[in-house]
Design goal:
Length: about 290
């Protein structure tokens, strides 16, 4: 897989950016309509999702074909790496917002409303006593059980940590030129990602069916489902990325010296692992 010699590859003109803009806009507008209870929201959301999916498949397909043809120079490779680094940084900030909301609610809001600041407590919710986890003063009396770390969250933690190990083994196999070992451990990683998603789905069923823990269960329910839910979405996306990379490995798209597509997916998956450790400690354990 020869690389372009010198220069900087300039791709041909493409409609994918505008198509993606239309799809993402329709998707966001559809979700906003759904939150407002508007009737056509599911249609708008579905159309936006389909357009976005077509854009992702088409655009990434073009990038893969360009890479396989050897059109990318070392400078393009560096640009792709920096692009992935900034993308992951944006994801770090995304989750930092939700962890910040959890921290503020637990460390500041609950103590203030429970009398740590008498003036605030008397003004807003007189004689209110709260302790975490709580649904909040507006939902006093709402009976629910918090989700503990055992057994499903702990099992899922072990699954994700194991997936990080299998992915690392696959990476070393790729650099060693051992394609059979590479493909085997890549599919192991994909299977572990699917298992994590399945167990989290069962955890949500238990929360709704037996713990009365829902997205509308006040501040605890909202922070719990926003953090675990968005992380779950990232696991699904990462699993799809790894599945595509596994198929590309089977087709021989990567070499020991040129495999940024593999590395980008691996970076993303390890990021997902690290975020889960934070979720596990601050949402389930503490």
């Amino acid at each position: 897989m020869a690389q372009a010699e010198g220069g900087y590859y300039v791709p041909h003109s493409s409609w994918w950016p505008i198509i993606g803009s239309v799809g993402v806009t329709a998707l966001v507008v559809g979700i906003a309509m759904w939150l407002e209870g508007m009737g056509a929201s599911l249609w708008v959301t579905g159309i936006g999702a389909v357009i976005t999916l077509i854009m992702v498949i088409g655009w990434f397909g073009d990038v893969v074909r360009e890479g396989v043809k050897g059109l990318y120079s070392d400078q393009v490779d560096r640009s792709l790496r920096w692009g992935m680094i900034w993308f992951i940084f944006s994801e770090v900030m995304f989750f930092a917002a939700f962890f910040g909301a959890l921290f503020y609610a637990r460390v500041f809001s609950v103590p203030w409303l429970s009398g740590e600041d008498p003036a605030t407590s008397r003004l807003l919710w007189d004689s209110m006593v709260l302790s975490w986890p709580t649904a909040g003063p507006g939902n006093v009396g709402m009976e629910f059980q918090p989700m503990g770390p055992w057994p499903l969250p702990t099992i899922n933690t072990l699954i994700l940590l194991t997936s990080g190990v299998t992915l690392t083994i696959a990476h070393h196999a790729l650099k060693a030129g051992n394609r059979g070992r590479l493909v085997t451990y890549m599919w192991f990683t994909v299977a572990l990602g699917l298992l994590f998603t399945g167990l989290q789905g069962y955890e949500y069923y238990e929360a709704y069916a037996h713990l009365n823990l829902r997205l509308d269960t006040g501040i605890y329910g909202s922070t719990f489902f926003m953090l675990t839910g968005f992380h779950g979405v990232h696991v699904v996306i990462g699993t799809l990325m790894l599945a595509v990379i596994s198929l590309r490995c089977m087709k021989g798209h990567f070499s020991p010296d040129s495999h940024f597509g593999f590395e980008a997916s691996a970076w993303y998956w390890h990021f997902v692992d690290v975020v889960w450790l934070g979720v596990f400690i601050f949402v389930y354990v503490l």
